[in-house]
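Retro notes
What went well: the complex prediction finally ran end to end.
Inputs used:
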Amino acid sequence: MAAVARAHPNIALVKYWGKADDELIIPVAGSMSMTLDQFATTTSVALTTDADTFKLNGTLADAKATGRTTVFLDLVRGLAAEAGLDTADAYANVVSTNEGPTAAGMASSASGFAALATAAAAAYGLELSTKDLSRLARRGSGSASRSLIDRFAVWHAGTSDATSYAETISAPDMAMVSVTVNATAKKVSSRDGMVATRDTSPYYQAWIDTTEATLDEMIAACAAEDFTRIGELTETHAHRMHAVINATNPPIRYLAPVSWQVFDEVAAMRDDGLEAYATADAGPNVVIICRPDDAAAVAARVAPFGEITTFAPGVGAHLVDSA
Ligand code: 2P0
C-alpha cells in the first residue's frame, strides 16, 4: 500500500505559543490561521517490511528528523492496530519534497506533518475524518493540525487528544505578502522556545489569557467580515507573542532590526491609506495581511527589505494518489 499527499504551510493570525501537554501537543490556548496556496510539501508513504526511512528533498534525512518521523509512524501503526488492520506491523519509506525555499522559515513542519499524516493514514488503510487527521497531524507538530483545513482554520485548544483539533472558519478574502528578510537571526526552535517561555517568562499567564480573549475577538471579527478588526488583532497579537518570548531568561529574540523596519513600513502604509497589518513567527521574517486588491501595492513598498511572495488562501492537506 502506498499514498501521496500534498499540504501547504499556514500562517497564524492568532498564534500558538506554549503547550499544556508536551507529549500530546495540547496547546495552552487556541489559535487561528490562513492556509497558504504555495510552498506545498508533497509526501509519499510506501509500506515496506524492512525499516522506516525518510528522504527529504532528495537526500536521506539526519537521525533527528528520521527519529521524529518514526515516532509519528508509531502513532499511525497504533491506530492501525486499534482498527485491527494487518498493516499495523509494517514499516514505511517516506519521501518528502518541499516546494518552498528550505531556509525561509515558512512553517515547513506544518505542511510536512499535515502531508505525512494524510499520506500515512491512507497507506496504512485508516479511514480518518478531517478532524481526526487534524488531531493526528497535531501529534507531529502543533501547527500542522491547522494545515488540514482549507483557507482559514481555528485550532481549538481542547483539554485532551480527542478535543484538540482544527476546523474551518469563514473569513473575508485576504492576501498575505511574506517578506523573507536578509537577516541571520540566532535560531531557537519553536519547540525549545515554547519551553523556555513557559519556564522563565513572567508574562506567560498573561499571554495565555490574552490569547484566549484574542481568539474570541478574532472569531467575532471573522463572522462580521471586519477586515480592519482582523488586521488590528493580528498585529497586536504578534507583538504580544514576541513580548512574552523576549521576557524569557536568558532572553530569546526572533525579530531582527530589519523586521522592525518592515513593521514601521506597514505602519507608514496605513498612514498613507493603504490598509495592511503585519505579523511574524519564530524568526525574523514578516508576513503582511491586506485586501487582495492591495497586494501588489503592499509588495512594492516592502520589496527593498527582502524577498517577496504573495499568497492567497489555499487548500488543506489532501491525497493526490493512493494505491
Ligand atoms: C503559530 N508557531 O501559531 C506559531 C507562531 C511559531 C510562532 O506554531 O512544537 O512548529 O512542533 O508543536 O507547530 C511553531 O510551532 O511547534 C508555531 P511544535 P510548531 O504558527
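What we learned: Residues 12, 15-17, 25, 31, 109, 141-143, 190-191, 281-282 surround 2P0 (CB under 6 Å).
What to try next: split runs per interface for comparison.
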